[in-house]
Amino acid sequence: MKLFIALAFLVAAAYGSPVAKTTAFNYHENIGIKEATRIKQLEEAIDFDGSRIIGGSLSSLTQTPHLGGLSILLTNRRTSVCGSSLLSNTKAVTAAHCWSDGRNQALQFTVVLGALRLFQGGVRITTNNVVMHPQWNPNTASNDVAVITMNRVDFNNNIQPIALASGNNEYVGTWATAAGYGATSDSQSGIPNNTARRHVNLRVISNAECRRTFSFIASSVICVETQSGRASTCGGDSGGPLDIGSGNSRTLIGITSFGHISGCQRGHPAGFARVTSFRSWITSRL
């Protein structure tokens, strides 16, 4: 079975299919496990207040109170990481590939709320109640959405839900904010002297423009342009929010789904699950 999957991946790569170009497929092995190790080592080694998203700003807890970190225990007992967005006292939304990436399966999530550090502090709730979109396809990164159900968490200044976008607005040209705990660069191999949750402002582009890089882009995907080496989501940010607005009036328009397999500092667009396309499916599970 493993040989078949490996051969399928090589054939797909040879023919330039989506699986060869995005970071969603085999996310945990390629990105998440390494990020979990790096973040945990950092937190055990130093006191810090810094970050991960490339070219962004440090996020205070009150700036991104809807952001939930995910410490992920895989069935092979290794640890990976993702992000999520809090929707209610008991529900959060993330990327489906954080639960199952086409090769690796999660056993449980620890949802981390109101914390600067991913492996320390805040409110930490363990759950295995995760429902992926039934049409999630790791080969094309389509329908990359999952709803998390957890024990009740109380809201405070540092823990707040975010509203789901509605309507037909495609948001082209809109500046939106992505947030997460992920890597700060493609080449990051050691432990930086400051790291924590971070946010970055990115401009939404049309799907036609996004298709110049990713030919498979569907209407249910929303893309942002990235600045080569300067501003982007990166490894470990998967499942986290793309939102608009300010303060307590922020609206979730995207769920971090994929970047280009060549890296997050090359200036390629980044893809998100478009919340308006999945609003009905998500709300039916709240």
Automatic annotation (TrEMBL):
Main location group: secreted
GO terms under cellular component: extracellular region
Gene3D superfamilies associated with the record: Trypsin-like serine proteases
Residues in the signal sequence: 1-16
Source superkingdom: Eukaryota
Subcellular location: Secreted, Extracellular space
Single GO MF descriptor: toxin activity
GO biological process: proteolysis
Residue ranges of domain Peptidase S1 in the record: 53-286
Record keywords: Disulfide bond, Fibrinolytic toxin, Hemostasis impairing toxin, Signal, Toxin
Pfam families listed in its UniProt record: Trypsin
Entries under InterPro entries matching the protein: Peptidase_S1_PA, Peptidase_S1_PA_chymotrypsin, Peptidase_S1A, Trypsin_dom, TRYPSIN_HIS
Keyword Signal set for record: yes
Entry function: Fibrinolytic activity; shows preferential cleavage of Arg-Gly bonds in all three fibrinogen chains. Contact with the caterpillars causes severe bleeding, due the anticoagulant effect of the protein.
Protein name (record): Peptidase S1 domain-containing protein
Organism, scientific name: Pieris brassicae
Phylogenetic placement of the source organism: Eukaryota, Metazoa, Ecdysozoa, Arthropoda, Hexapoda
